[in-house]
Amino acid sequence: MGIGKTFVTTINCMDGRVQIPVNEYLMSKYKVDYVDTITEAGPNKILADADNAILVESIKVRYEVSTIKHDSKVVAIVGHYDCGGNTAEEAEQLVQIKKACEHVATWNENVKVIGLWVDETWAVNEIAWTVTVDEVVS
Ligand SMILES: [Zn+2]
Asked: Ligand 1: distance of its center to the CA of 40 in Å?
């Protein structure tokens, strides 16, 4: 969009412990200038269950600002250890992340979707991703 800066997107938990690890991981991995950050409490569960249409739409509106206005080509969906908004155990959260990725992948085939798990050491682990046409971030 001619603003000269590159962006990726995260759909992250609002938990203050996960913002910096996730943003640093994404900036390092994709060599971008900025990470647009959409937060909810336990967004992996919200997008996997997809039973709260208002919340899902709210996330989608912000996702579209990032992918359209900022031309983001990657969105990362995050789950984490000790989540107050999603009390499921790790194994179930990983399944939710995968389902959430599959859901969000239907929004725009040109945007790559990856799943991230932030563990008990606050390290970021890439656990799943679904496909897009263009896997290269330019
Ligand atoms: Zn959380």
From this structure: 8
Mean of per-residue pLDDT scores for the chain: 91
Q: How far apart are CA 60 and CA 84, in angstroms?
A: 22
13 close to 79: Cβ distance less than 8 angstroms: yes
State the distance between the two ends of the chain, measured CA to CA, in whole angstroms.
13
pLDDT digits 0-9 by tens, 16-52: 999 999 999 999 999 999 999 999 999 999 999 999 9
Q: C-alpha angle with apex 89: 123 to 126, nearest 5 degrees?
A: 35
Global pTM reads: 0.90
Distance 85 CA to ligand 1 centre (A): 5
Residue 130 pLDDT greater than 90, yes or no: no
| Cα 83 to ligand 1 centre (Å) | 4
Distance (angstroms) between ligand 1 centre and the Cα of 133 equals 30
Report the CATH number of the 7-130 domain: 3.40.1050.10
Residue 42 C-alpha to ligand 1 middle, in angstroms?
Answer: 5
Strand partners, 129: 114
